[in-house]
Design a protein that fits this description.
- The model has no long low-confidence stretch (mean pLDDT 92).
- Strands 1-4-5-6 form a four-stranded antiparallel β-sheet, with no helix packed on it. A three-stranded antiparallel β-sheet has the order 3-2-7, with no helix packed on it.
- The chain has no helices and seven strands.
Length: 82
Amino acid sequence: MTDTDSRPPLPDRLSGNPRSPHHVKEIFEHEIGIKFNNKERNDVEEYCISEGWVKVASPKALDRRGQPLLITLKGTVEAFYN
């Protein structure tokens, strides 16, 4: 099928926040997955493969704009299309 050919390549750094300069709208039209330390995670807000970190939302803490604070976790990061 041509569905795999029409997917854009996954960047080294990607953010789910539309206000971020690392947000790529075309990638979010497809379902992507993130493996962090060989475990698949569904709560990743931002990742960087080359630097080896992911950012996940804090369960309770909010910033002054009411957005959840992001916690940086370091380890091995893999991004892939589902």
